[in-house]
Amino acid sequence: MAKKELLKEYEGDESNKKEVSRSDFPPNFFFGVATSAYQVEGAYKEGGSGPSIWDAFSHTEGKIVYKSNGDVAVDQYHRYKEDVELIAKLGFEYYRFSISWSRIFPDGLGTKINDEGINYYNNLINALLEKDTCFASFGDRVKIWITINEPLQTAVNGYDMGGFAPGRCQGSSIEPYLAAHHQILAHAAAVSIYRSKYKDKQGGQVGLVLDCEWAEANSENK
């Protein structure tokens, strides 16, 4: 059976449908929404931002279907207040967003801070807090920090399959493992800095996001 037909059959199977309510989850289960900076911010040449590896990757001919990119995306850089309003109206209490390295450190080296980038994230965080919804600059208000989002995807898709930036796929027996290794080192370094310099004063938590893929059978016999 073709995948399209299988999905159609699944959608029409009423036995697979179940009403879900808040009471089905424990009180300490957090509901929220999440975004990735490159996927939503846009304004890739504004506010002092420097180029990221995704800017270079998406602007390379043949890398992205339909030649799409994140130059504008959903323009959250200019429309973040509208996004915050939508989050509040939907009743979500948590919003996980990422901080663009190239917006904070345009030179890519981490040697010079871009104040315009800091101001953007300060404004976004303040707008979120009004709706009740990097350590030194935001830690007084942000209590849950994530160092790296889905390191598996960066290592495998970025340095093995070539589907993500920087699009490498020539050294599959070496490069994805090096990428994973250095992401772990970077995570450990960031956690060490937070725990030694900021945790006692700010009282937050720091970790990383691990992705997993969940699969369910289409039916009891398929």
UniProtKB/TrEMBL annotation:
Region: Disordered; residue ranges are 1-21
One function term, GO molecular function aspect: beta-glucosidase activity
Q: Which GO terms describe its biological process?
A: carbohydrate metabolic process
Question: Does the keyword field hold Hydrolase?
Answer: yes
Q: InterPro entries, from UniProt?
A: GH, GH_1_N_CS, Glyco_hydro_1
Listed A to Z, the keywords are: Hydrolase
List the Gene3D superfamilies.
Glycosidases (3.20.20.80)
Report the sequence similarity comment from the record. Belongs to the glycosyl hydrolase 1 family.
Protein name, UniProt field: Beta-glucosidase
Q: What organism, scientifically named, is this protein from?
A: Quercus lobata
Upper lineage ranks? Eukaryota, Viridiplantae, Streptophyta, Embryophyta, Tracheophyta
